[in-house]
Amino acid sequence: MRYMIATSLLMLGPGTGRAFIIYGGIPFPQAIEYSTVLTEMITLALIVYDIVKKNPYKPYVVALVVLVFMHLTWEFQLSNWWQAFGGKFAEWFF
């Protein structure tokens, strides 16, 4: 069940991002940032809840790692080292 909830957390970002843009009038880059942080905070809250209740929390940790990776990818998308990595990746595989 926790893996299914963790998977649904990965889909929370696009919907909240669009809601921030459409209903909040927030610019696109900030809406992405806010939705990503919101999803990470919900995941952290679920981890803390499961630790307190002594339930298995590893599925949420896996989801948090994926969310943080996605967040870092968004933050560094225009950096030189990321562009170089993406260029080499595209060269090798495409």
The total tally of domains equals 1
Structural class estimated from helices and strands: mainly alpha
Q: Give the overall shape, derived from the CA principal axes.
A: globular
What percentage of the residues does DSSP assign to strands (E)?
under 5%
Give the number of helices. 5
Q: Encode the helix/strand succession as letters.
A: HHHHH
Low-confidence stretches: none
- What fraction, in percent, of the residue positions are helical? over 70%
Count of DSSP E strands? 0
Biggest sheet descriptor: none
Rg, nearest Å: 16 Å
What is the first-to-last residue Cα distance? 37 Å
**What number is the mean pLDDT?**
93
Q: Concise description?
A:
With 94 residues, the protein is mainly alpha-helical. The chain has five helices and no strands.
Would you write up a description of this structure?
The chain contains five helices and no strands. By secondary structure, it is mostly helical. The chain has one domain. The protein is globular and about 45 Å long. The termini are far apart. The model has no long low-confidence stretch (mean pLDDT about 95).
